[in-house]
Design goal:
The complex is a heterodimer of chains A (526) and B (412). With 526 residues, chain A is mainly α. Chain A contains 24 helices and four strands. In chain A, the strands form two sheets. A two-stranded antiparallel sheet of chain A has the order 1-2. In chain B, the strands form three sheets. In chain B, strands 9, 10, 11, 12, 13, 14, 15 and 16 form an eight-stranded antiparallel beta sheet that branches. In chain B, strands 2-1-3-4 form a four-stranded parallel beta sheet, with no helix packed on it. The chains are: A mainly alpha (526), B alpha+beta (412). The interface between A and B is medium-sized, with 27 and 26 residues. Chain B: It is found in: Cytoplasm, Cytoskeleton, Cilium basal body.
């Protein structure tokens, strides 16, 4: 009992400390002093009156949302004596693996730099700055020569690293038995069983209304859709983050989604945010970074070739170029197993005083990175809002898809969960695919790393991302991947090569995610 | 033994030819006995010109109506719309209702347009009301954006001024006529880019009116960022959209609902979108169209949506392009022709122009009935709301009026 109380007070102290230095704290202070002018605030009952004032004017709600946001995003130390690395990643072997992976990426980046004789960063001459400012809104029309640039890494390179992960304390044993994991991931992570998943995703059950199923044209809207929309409007009126998060578990109506996601992510469009974005933009104008070329290349290779996202090409540059200059993103490395790469001012190699993070936000983009942004363009058409939403999505979710960690939403766990689900519930299929050299993870990995962006139809993708936000977890990606295999199991049983298996699973654009998830979780005989 | 349909075309496009071949039809030349001729607009002019003395027999069909230009020539389309509006106003139809600014509520789907040089003075009057506006000059007889330019000063079109002393512009041959329309300077932008919509509408007969709208269309995007001073450029990027939900997703609708809200988007797609396609055919050209039973026509409607989500009809093409820029594009056009042929040449058999042109629902493919006059009449007043996608106020009134009228022809 005493331990719990201590824990709680530690948590409260921690959050209070974080919020004290936030803009919200200043605003609350200001609002409180303004309220002193009001007749209802009396000196005798100052504290209660101000609290009441906050409640009526909605400031209490804003504070609640900020606290909720802190609780959701920042994990709390498991043990008061745990060092900060444990917040990033508690398992030593995972930390080591991430460290060596990072070294490899940086080496690759540096060698590209040396080969092409391009500096990691340079200041743009004034003429070039003016030029860029003029075509800020149409950078897509540029056709720079990017042939010599190559992506620093692609998902399949990353997969190879994950396949080779080993826990030095775990003995796999030489002989196969019933408990041998037949998949590619060979580390013993704890993942949920299907019974646990059923409880966890209870709102997706067959008895609960869902957008993505119960809003189909044949279903009369009075049965579910109308009420759900009404409820959504109420949630927005209340401006309650926690309620919004709970609400979108059943899907978000298209017209309300942009606002609901902003509420859940606690993103508001204050003048300071616009100013901050403009500041980032001016950083882009003034300095050219090597990663900029990588970003250009990635957008040209992926989003520009997509049938629906090509329209938003220019927005993608505007978001991603600013993103790489945003040092506030460095904050997320406190709970990310990854660490930002360091670079040294020329001639001062190894001298910590001359170290800078490179790129400024510490995130090196890989092949397909721009696809994290593309679907958001369907919701936000104002670049600074789009930017904030993306940044928040990245520091809450997407970073976990390309760093090595034991977190239940980390890519390693997702891969393991996927393979376990498949091996447990579709053993024949799993065995067959393995026999023909088509390990399922080799096909589904790219879906999960991209959170299915570019593979599903946009409206289906947004319904999926509703649930990522709603459950504050990426586990649904692994469940969906398994569900897709289950759906196409009959065809997959007939293939005899990896290429043929890839072909069966090449086109996911006609899939409806919610029925697939429901059937897999709740209607499959286990 | 059923003999095979003999086809001719002077438009060598794979999406056409593949469709003919897959039906086992036989290619012949125009001098031979043919059943189906997919012709260009130049050819149709020759076929139906009085000098040619061409008589089409009952087993021959062609893909254009004789006077399609009533709809597809910019000046004639405008003339017919204006005529239609005046008629409705005269009979006090609620369709002709105007708002407080004097603009038509339902009939304002074409940007303000004048014929030059005929309406030059009227144009000047309108121009002076908003002197900072931009106008777009389009030659009446040309297609595919040829000869189009923008103006924002009267001096730029001095040539067309009737009163201009320096005008050597005497010959009023229809080839040199222009239309001048108010340029939509506030188009809806997606990703900061300007785009236009291409819709396909098939008319199998004008009397009774049977027209179908294709559920799939295009958004054509500009390659260069939109600024009001940009002249029309080649649209190179194409995004296929599905207008009617159902199986395929309508990404345009998703984008608009997400960024603008459900009500205004619903208004655009469910009301306005189809409405003017139908009324442009129904009210404007039906009375003047020569309903030759050997004809059908597949029109390409070009629509621009402004940033208030109001759609504007820019142009109707009699010969929409059958070239494709992407694989998906080609598939769409291939299916378009396929569904068109299924409707106008039932069962792929030798056509008989005496049939009533009423295809069974199963062959419609991706087409949806836009208006089926006969079906609507037989099923009665309440049912016709289901067949037609637009509001029914007033239209019923004008329809009963129209059927009593004898067909007007404007043969030249």
């Amino acid at each position: 009992m005493l331990q719990e109380e201590t824990d709680l007070s530690v948590i409260i102290a921690h959050i209070v400390q974080k919020l004290r230095s936030s803009r919200l704290s200043t605003q609350l202070g200001f609002q409180a002093s303004v309220s002193l002018q009001k007749p209802e605030i009396k000196l005798e009952s100052l504290k209660e009156d101000i609290k009441e004032f906050f409640r009526i004017t909605g400031w209490e709600k804003k504070l609640q949302n900020a606290v909720y946001s802190e609780l959701t995003v920042f994990p709390l130390p498991r043990h008061p004596a745990a060092p900060p690395e444990h917040l990033k990643e508690p398992l030593v072997y995972m930390r080591k693996a991430q460290g060596s992976w990072e070294k490899r990426i940086l080496k690759s980046l540096n060698s590209m730099c040396t080969e092409l004789s391009i500096p990691l960063a340079r200041k743009r001459p004034v003429v070039e700055q003016k030029e860029l400012l003029n075509k800020w809104n149409e950078m897509g029309t540029d056709e720079p020569d990017l042939s010599l640039f190559r992506p620093v890494y692609a998902p399949k390179d990353f997969l190879e690293v994950l396949i080779n992960l080993r826990n030095p304390n775990y003995e796999n044993g030489d002989h196969l038995n019933l408990r041998t994991h037949l998949g590619l991931i060979q580390v013993p992570l704890k993942v949920k069983y299907i019974s646990e998943l059923k409880d966890y995703f209870i709102e997706l059950s067959l008895n609960t209304g869902q957008l993505g199923i119960d809003d189909a044209t044949q279903v009369p809207p009075e049965l579910f859709e109308n009420e759900h929309v009404r409820l959504g409007q109420k949630v927005l009126a209340e401006q309650d983050s926690a309620a919004a998060q709970q609400y979108v578990r059943q899907g978000s109506p298209t017209a309300l989604r942009a606002e609901l996601w902003a509420l859940i992510l606690n993103v508001s469009n204050q003048p300071e945010d616009l100013l901050y974005y403009e500041q980032l933009k001016s950083n882009v104008i003034q300095h050219d970074l090597l990663v900029d070329s990588l970003i250009y290349k990635d957008v040209k290779l992926t989003a520009s070739n997509d049938d629906y996202y090509f329209v938003f090409e220019d927005y993608l540059y505007q978001v991603l170029l600013c993103f790489s200059r945003d040092t506030s993103v460095l904050g997320h490395f406190a709970y990310n197993s990854a660490s930002p790469p360091k670079s040294y001012i020329r001639g001062k190699l190894g001298m910590e005083d001359y170290a800078v993070f490179y790129p400024p936000n510490g995130v090196i983009p890989f092949h397909g990175f721009s696809m994290y942004v593309a679907p958001l363009c369907f919701l936000y058409h104002e670049p600074s809002k789009l930017y904030q939403i993306f940044r928040e999505m990245y520091v809450r979710f997407f970073f976990r898809l390309h760093s090595i960690s034991s977190h239940h939403s980390g890519i390693v766990s997702l891969c393991f969960l996927f393979e376990t689900l498949l091996q447990t519930h579709l053993p024949q299929l799993f065995y067959h695919l393995r026999e023909i050299g088509a390990q399922p993870l080799r096909i589904s990995f790219k879906w999960m790393v991209r959170a299915f962006s570019g593979y599903l139809a946009t409206d289906q993708l947004l319904l999926l991302w509703d649930r990522i936000l709603g459950y504050n977890s990426l586990e649904i990606l692994a469940v969906l991947a398994a569900a897709v295999f289950a759906f196409r199991a009959v065809n997959l049983m007939e293939v005899t090569s990896l290429a043929a298996a890839e072909a069966v699973l090449a086109d996911l654009s006609t899939l409806k995610v919610m029925p697939l998830l429901q059937i897999f979780l709740f209607a499959t005989v286990t | 033994m059923a003999s095979k349909v003999k086809w001719v075309t002077d438009i060598e496009k794979s999406v056409l030819i593949n469709n003919f071949e897959k039906r086992g039809w036989v290619q012949v030349t125009e001098n031979e006995d043919w059943n189906f001729y997919w012709m260009s607009v130049q050819t149709i002019r020759n076929v139906f010109s009085l000098e040619a003395g061409y008589r089409l027999s009952d087993d021959q069909i062609v893909n254009h109506f004789p006077n399609h230009y009533e709809l597809t020539r910019k000046d004639l389309m405008v003339k017919n719309i204006k005529r239609y509006r005046k008629e409705l106003e005269k009979e006090g139809s609620p369709l002709a209702e105007k708002d407080e600014n004097g603009k038509y509520i339902y009939l304002d789907f074409v940007p303000v347009t004048f014929m030059l040089p005929a309406d030059y003075n009227l144009f000047v009057e309108e121009f002076r009301k908003s002197p900072s506006s931009t106008w777009i000059m389009k030659p009446c007889g040309k297609a595919q954006g040829k000869g189009i330019f923008l103006i924002n000063k009267l001096s730029q079109i001095k040539k067309w001024s009737r009163d201009s002393k320096t005008s050597s512009f005497v010959s009023q041959s229809s080839k040199e006529a222009y239309v001048i329309s108010l340029y939509i300077s506030n188009p809806l932008l997606i990703g900061g880019r300007k785009f236009d919509l291409r819709l396909y509408v098939l008319v199998s007969t004008y009397r009774p009116l049977r027209c179908y709208v294709y559920k799939l269309g295009f958004c054509r995007f500009c390659t260069v960022k939109y600024t009001p001073s940009t002249s029309e450029l080649d649209n190179m990027f194409v995004m296929i959209i599905n207008f009617h939900g159902g199986g395929l997703v309508n990404n345009l609708r998703l984008y608009l609902e997400s960024t603008r809200g459900k009500e205004v988007t619903g208004k655009l797609f469910d009301e306005n979108g189809n409405y003017f396609a139908e009324s442009s055919l129904w009210g404007c050209v039906c009375p003047v169209m020569n309903n030759d039973k050997h004809c059908f026509e597949c029109y390409g409607y070009d629509i621009i949506i402004d940033d208030k989500l109001k759609p504007w009809l820019i142009e109707v093409n009699a010969s929409p392009s059958l070239t494709s820029s992407t694989a998906n594009d080609r598939i769409l056009k291939y299916n378009l022709i396929n569904d068109t042929l299924n409707i106008v040449v039932p069962n792929g058999e030798i056509p008989d122009c005496k049939w009533n042109k009423s295809p069974p629902k199963e062959v419609l493919g991706n087409y949806e009935i836009l208006c089926d006059e006969e079906l609507a009449q037989t099923e009665g007043a309440e049912r016709d709301l289901r067949n037609r996608s637009g509001p029914s106020i007033g239209l019923k009134g004008s329809r009963t009026r129209e059927t009593g009228k004898t067909a007007l022809t404007t043969w030249k």
